[in-house]
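Design review, sub-item: ligand-bound model
Attendees: FS, YL, KQ
YL presented the inputs for the KG4 complex:
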Amino acid sequence: MYESIIALGIESSCDETSIGVVKVTVKDGISVTERLGLVTETQEKLHKDFGGVVPELAARAHSEKIDTCFNKALKESGVQLDHIDIICVTTGPGLIGGLISGINFAKGLAFTTGKPMIGVNHLVGHALTPQMTDDLSYPYLLLLASGGHCQYLAVLEANKIKRLGTTIDDAPGEVFDKVAKMLNLPTFSGSGVEKFARKGDENRFSFPLPLINTNDCDLSFSGLKSSVRRQVDSLVDKQSGLYKSDQRDICASFQKSMRIIFEKKTKKAVELFSKVSWEETTSFSLAGGVAANRDIRNSLRSLCNDLNIKFSAPPLDLCTDNGLMIAYAGTQIYLSGKQDNMGLSPKPRWPIDLDNQKPLGFGKRGRKV
Ligand code: KG4
Ligand code: ZN
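KQ shared the predicted structure:
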């Protein structure tokens, strides 16, 4: 059997408007993926002064930018709308306004062209990315660490993903962003913290390692965030401000805590993996925006080396939110015989593993999915 599908993927669940085009060719059961084009517009500047994503602003910006992204992505891909076989769109989890912008755009395209439309879970998009980028075969262990999520996932098949552990409060990217803001760094993002950490002393401050000794791979970051806040306040009280060396040392010490938490919990996740899978973990992949952090990436790579596990991490533009991962995950859903209709609606809370919702803890707006 030989089948080639060109998929358009639309992502607008948070603060990136992104359209990707991918070609997946399946020949004798082997799937070959070709990245045709990806255009991503980030809203980082728009939300900077608010210290977090403002849902209303985000939704409006998605609606304004989506059309331009679409046209640019088709141009970059060298395909016309006629060549697209399926239209895939993030349906959740995410901010409802952004999801509606994307879904409405997808519906418009599907309605006018008569092409199939597929709603995709954003987390499944992240979870299947290593297949697209590194040809990782099932089963594999994935750590998704981003601004909205933190989960260890056993990816057994495209439609069989088990959650082994999750954050019980904040997401790590969110905490990186808040630390950058507390320290008033030039960019309120993890990349800013990483840059300052490079010249800092990681042993100057000792920040906590929440849940580090529990016998599971659930994670917690809010105590770490509060501890950084207290340290910043105490230095400001004492010396009426922060020196650059303070900023650098806090970044380095905070990043060290993050690194240790991920090292410890990844070890645990590797152990737990064999309880849900028919074989031991042989491959581990790191995804989500926090995967861009070189310190965390390198420490997990060397841990995998020690454990004799293959390590992979997608290229940076596919670690953060993007339309290509949605296009790819959409093809897998389509190949399994599923598609959606005009009744497709947003699912702001859409856990990846519906069998696993034990109430471990709560974030500000309920449990993180
Ligand atoms: O996956 P992503 O684009 O969006 C969400 O689904 O959240 O991740 C964005 C997050 C932000 O919180 C950002 O601070 C974090 O990824 N991030 C980093 C780095 N680059 C981006 N965190 C730590 N170190 C980095 N170099
Ligand atoms: Zn994401």
